[in-house]
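Need tokens for this chain, all 500 residues.
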Amino acid sequence: MKENRAFNVRVFLLTKKTKVVIALLIVTLCSTLFRVMSNRGLRGTSKAKRSGVYSVTGGLDHSEYQDNSKAGSSNARPHEDDDVCFHYDGILLISYANKSGFATVFFLYVLNQLLYAEKHNLLPWIHLDSATNAHVYDDEEHNHAENPLSLGVNVLNGLRWMTFQDSENNQFYKYPGKPVLDYKAPGSETSSITINGTGIWSSYFDPPSKLDPLRHLAHPETSTSSCHQKPIFQLTLQQIEPSLMVYAPYTVQPWRRKSTPPSLANWKVPYQDWFEPMRQAAHGVIHRHYHPTEEMVTLAHKANPVVEAEEACLAMHIRRADKADQRQPIPVETFLPYAEAYLQASIWVGTTIVIYIATDSNEVISEIQDTWPTKISSYVRYQQSSMEEPVLRSSDKNTVFKMNQEHHRMNTEIFVDILAMAKCEFMVHGMSAVSEAVHYMNPLLHRQSVNLEEDLDEATYLRTTKATMTHSDFGKLVRNRLNDKRRETEAERAKMDHST
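Here are the structure tokens for all 500 residues:
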């Protein structure tokens, strides 16, 4: 009897303990579910602070934006197929460049930061404004008052510096290494900035990635992406110039500078070989991220309406304005023998003749018209008008973008020249950011162009106009390429006729 009573007591106690355990499990489960639901409902607040966005004002009406969004419910889990940020460790905000012209800003400063983004697995977000881009910013065009979106962003600036000792001069150089992408990590540095409007980039290019700041950062509750959870990183101007631009071994340069480390300058290597790996790397970035707007493409075709598959034009970039690093303007008569060689080769093969001139000087246009033989000047074309006005060119050696405040107009004219020259198969040029931009867009020009500033004396750092190729050798190159192109075209036509 006592044993049965003891057994009943033990069963009673066990049952009581079990009830307590079950009750605790229920409480824990309910608490977990509540936190999960809360986090999903607050995706645009607490998590946004951790990722960098801390305030949003202006922009589209939120309800209107949700109606137009195809993202679906915010409760859906991000998936790598539709999550633009899925494979990235963070977002690189590109907003700094030096106070220079269009080609330098867009095809050197922005491009090198895109190389940094790819090297460190960061999704690029380009937003250039008036802060450090005074010579390309146009208040009338780029303030975008019709879309007064304002994002308050906490960006990370801390990074690990890479250092190398140059084997030729034994000096140490450092350049930006891996970014610190944790807001709370030792060594992390943050700064608060405000992003207003859509910036300068969108006037000339489509977005460099599928990241939509309005959808993915300002209103993350309308998106299934993980972008609002990613840290936002930004290189400072001090980290970019000169460290990234000159000392990083993987970035591109338009010419050898005095400040270029000797082992990177590699003075004994001809410029053509020195440029090759940089142009290849730049072309990859151009292909992945640089998508000119339809308007820019249309304007370029208007300026140089060649059909690349059928015609092979010669581009000549003749710069007269001030040139940094002791680069000297190249006389117009230096270009003439190459124009003659191209003309004779084209006549020999029997192809269309087009010579496209891009220049910042009215004097160059006048000299070509007045001094070049009619048999050549009659084939010359150049950009004549922009926005229903004559193209802005200098009448002396002053830089155009420093003379005029119509920066959007000048940006457009320079970009149209770059796109128009990139349509050609051959090019004669000096050293400039514009000439390099053309090579970046059309990699075939690397072996089909002549650099008239090839020779460089390492000791005195003085350049002469010694070309990479004589005009007679250039004529042979043009003739051979035009013959090959004709055979390729005829073979393609025969193939099409056979298939029909």
